Amino acid sequence: MNYILISITFLFLSCSSKKEATKNTSKKEETQSNYKFENINENDSLFASINKGTCFGQCPVYSMNIYNDGTVIYKGKRFVEKEGEYSLKLNYTELMTFVNKAKSINYMQMDNNYDNASVTDLPSTTTSIVIDKIRKKVYRRFGYPREILAFEKLFSDLLSNENWEKTTTKKD
């Protein structure tokens, strides 16, 4: 009889621990899926962006906005594989990749503008990111630090993601 009582008690405690562990895991997953990065103000949910401008040739022209909740809006305009508007969802770890890369290349300390008005046939690229509630925006065409290309590559790498969903059919 004592063995049965002990077995039932052990079984009860075992189930209770599993239930608590599952509850804690669910809370952690919920926190990870409902994250939001801090921004400059409450009305600004843009986390990072890139805007690739035109040139006299066949340079890719597109924009990509990444928001604090992980939503990515891509607008392919010219000379790109995906024309039109598409959306994608990134997770917390993927967003942190942008933060970590920006920090590793000292993005926040870069000049705001890298250009030479006498050079006219180079495409422009503007990127931005918010880190520690500060938005940094860098425009580049000529004479820029090569490290910024590693940051821009994070955006272009997203283009090969297979989870893009078409949101519009017309070109912008």
Radius of gyration: 23 Å
CATH topology label of the largest domain: Mago nashi protein
Total beta-strand segments = 8
Tell me the CATH superfamily of the largest domain: Mago nashi
How would you write the strand order of the largest sheet? Answer: 5-7-6-1-2-3-4-8
| Tally of separate domains | 2
Q: What CATH architecture of the largest domain would you give?
A: 2-Layer Sandwich
Structure annotation, total helices: 3
Overall pLDDT level: 82
Order of helices and strands: HEEEEHEEEHE
What share of residues is helical? 25-40%
Largest sheet: 8 strands, mixed
pLDDT below 50 for ≥5 consecutive residues: which ranges? 3-33
CATH class of the largest domain: Alpha Beta
Relative strand content? 25-35%
Shape designation: globular
From the N-terminal CA to the C-terminal CA, the straight-line distance is 77 Å
